[in-house]
Amino acid sequence: GEEKDICLMDIALLGMKELRAAGKLDDLEISNEVNAASIEVTVDVDGKDEDWLVMFKNETHNHPTEIEPFGGAATCLGGAIRDPLSGRSYVYQAMRLTGAGDPRTPIEETLAGKLPQKKIVQKASDGYSSYGNQIGLATGLVNEIYNERYLAKHMEIGAVIAAAPKENVVRGEALPGDIIVLLGGKTGRDGCGGATGSSKVHTEDSIEESSAEVQKGNPPTERKIQRLFRNSEVSKKIKVCNDFGAGGVSVAIGELAAALEINLDAVPKKYEGLDGTELAISESQERMAVVIEAADVDEFIQLAAEENLEAAVVAEVKDHHRLIMNWNGADIVNLSRAFLDTNGASQKTEVKVSRPKAEQNYFKNAVFERLTGADTLKEKWLNNLADINVASQKGLIEKFDSSIGAGSVTMPFGGRYQLTPTQAMTAKIPLIQGETNTGTIMSCGYDSKLSTWSPFHGALYAVIESTAKIAAVGGDYSKIRFTFQEYFERLRQNPERWGRPFSALLGAYRAQKDFGLPAIGGKDSMSGSFKEIDVPPTLVSFAVDTVN
Question: Which candidate in 73, 92, 381, 448 could, as Cys together with 124 as Cys, close a disulfide (CB 3.0–4.6 Å)?
């Protein structure tokens, strides 16, 4: 066959493609919209079976949270919600996994150009919990990992799960004459450069100069969009939908059809003075782009107004296979779709995978390093409890409301004294009316020290850990579907650095192959470096299962 360049994405998709070819992925929803992983499930509604879609997504906001912890973490959750929400599903449960240096470090030891770790972890947890509590989203599991290598850049991961009746989700195609409506928040300068900023080198000046790249969240507006899209009359009018994330209008609308004419003057603004470039690339939050038929525009805008949402016609689908943006009466962008579809010039690099050092074998050293200098069992026990990663996180976890929506099956703490952290989060499928016994389980797996010793073993065991947790709370492991979050140092043109995500993806692939279970979603971030400090090789496995 034709030779094809191999990229990291090919390895990430390998398990899914093999299992689908073998007929072991019958529940995957096939769609041109790929904002969130989506599976088809049967839901018990008042004793009758209904076809539903369950969607899930993970998202990082590492760079914004490092610079402006409250806003960065808040919009991490907001961005994660919008992905399945753009699929017209209702988001009902969230999970938060973070990585930081030791927050007990004295302020005077803070690195130049960095915020104190204590400030980052406290304000980030405030931001994430504030967004979730305002939008009305239960946060079922919260965990923070402490590793000095996260001094390079904070890790802020949000994962969400959502559901919708399958009949309410129309997967259409944008055709010439269709109209694109911008729905939700107004556009400002916040978030301009956020997409490129998240990938550029973090310097001592970043916290002073890059704060404008951090988007400003407004959870009540996103809550209104959730309510609107839950209305079947609205969702069935939507042919295609895209949320506004990295790249703003240029990406969110630019991806919807092969030929578009976008009127930037029609984009609702927070204030005057924005030029065409700012309107095109701003990443202001809580915005959706929807494709609807011209005949449905007036009714759609009226239904949005009933939820107190602003909706404006900003573009039309054409047949000339060009992306055109008009501002102040002039075309400021006019590009052929064929050129855009090339995705730019291909780049090549060498990859070198280093063998893990035997003398640092994590499996031999993980326990013994905590027992050094301890003679009695009591001393060994106290040594282990002194590890900050073993300490209770009850104070952190109780910032988050896990009971919103009255659908949570397990609470964050259980056991006789309500002090034992849960292994996974479980919730019933949210119904507007009726009763159901169908629910979802979501867990996560990751060990930063194991991954530092060997990214391959770290990813392999991340998948095993997330699977084991599903089984431990009563799920059927054979139905699990995964989504992965990768977070690595800046790779540069260094073969050994490229070898770390390469080997991690191979480890995850090995686990998928051995279990016969696929990863159907994922996200990556490759900017975890500050001067000579790099984040630990990070591949987090999120596992999702349905249960009755």
Answer: 73
